[in-house]
Amino acid sequence: MSFSSEVKEELAKQFGRSRHCQIAELAGILELEGMLDEEGKLVVSNENSLLQTKYGLLLQKIFGEKQEILQIMQTLHWDQEPYRSRKINHRRADGMLVQQTCCKRAFIRGAFMAAGSISDPNKSYHFEIVCHTLEQAQQLKELMEFFETEPKIVERKERMVVYLKEGSQIVDLLNVMEAYVSLMNLENVRILKEMRNSVNRKVNCETANINKTVNAAVKQMEDIKRIRDTIGFDNIPEPLAEIAQARLDYPEATLKELGTYLDPPVGKSGVNHRLRKLAAIAENLI
Predict the structure, then answer these.
(1) For residue range 3-45, what is the model confidence (pLDDT) as tens digits?
(2) How many beta carbons lie within 10 A of that of residue 121, not counting itself?
(3) Same domain, 107 and 219
(4) Which helix H or strand E contains 167, and what residues bound it?
(5) Distance separating alpha carbons of residues 10 and 207, to the nearest angstrom
(6) Cβ distance 21 to 106 under 8 Å?
(7) Residue 214 sits in the same domain as residue 176
(8) DSSP per residue, 178-241
(9) Cβ contact 92:160 at 8 Å
(10) Which of residues 141, 163, 192 is at a domain's end?
């Protein structure tokens, strides 16, 4: 089962306690996937079994056994034109339905159940809800922004897509929709990813430092051999000759270790200073 399906399976079991929240969630579903069938019944066009089941349960909770289409449309503050024309006018939901914070949550949950998807967090972070019109998309974007997320809108195949690509914001929106198990699963993936990235950064940094140290040692050996073969160590100051011979004797030693081989011992900065002088001498011999 995909991660998106897991989220929807969890959300299919979530229902607002209050009737107004249930109506808001129903609005989120029908605004995006509502349609009139050949018999004039108000149905959802998405054949997903989870959505179909939740749609039926919402109708049951809100209207009981008597589920007349005109009553449903009146509850959602729709006019009767769609019923007469057999066509749903996909537009912004009535603002009265999403005034309260709990209703905003429910509407977003319904919209996601109807037309949303979320990518496998092991591969990438991407959350989206596909809307029919820009007007719908802008309303959904505003509702998501109310919960301090930063969604964007893009047009795709004559539809408007509201999406998020930031992992932390997707976690926040799962919390908004009350998909708490999915939220924890996503957080676990994020933590593992961050740990791997942190380890990789440290390894890359250490590798770079090792390469830098090795390259510096190789250059020092080349400089020292050039001095030895060209003018000899007898023609340079004794402290420089001493460090030059130490580097030849201990090619893999660190600067700190090299200093311990001198008499008297010299600190890391002192060793580095002498090697720089040797490099300058070697440069003049080219």
Answers:
(1) 999 999 999 999 999 999 999 999 999 988 887 777 777 888 8
(2) 21
(3) no
(4) helix 167-176
(5) 45
(6) yes
(7) no
(8) T-HHHHHHHHHHHHHHHHHHHHHHHHHHHHHHHHHHHHHHHHHHHHHHHHHHHT-GGGS-HHHH
(9) no
(10) 192
Compute the distance between CA of residue 189 and CA of residue 191 in angstroms, rounded to an integer. Answer: 5
- What does the pLDDT look like over 203-234, one tens digit per residue? 888 888 878 877 888 888 898 999 998 888 88
pLDDT digits (tens, 9 = 90+) for 146-160: 999 999 999 998 899
DSSP 41-93: -EEES---HHHHHHHHHHHHHHHTT---HHHHHHHTT--SHHHHHT-----PP
Which domain covers residue 21, as residue numbers? 3-192
Q: Among all chains, which residue has been given the structure tokens 């749609």?
A: 55
Hunting for tokens 């605004």 — which residue is that?
31
pLDDT at 255: 87
User: How many domains does one find in the chain?
Assistant: 2
235 shares a domain with 106: no
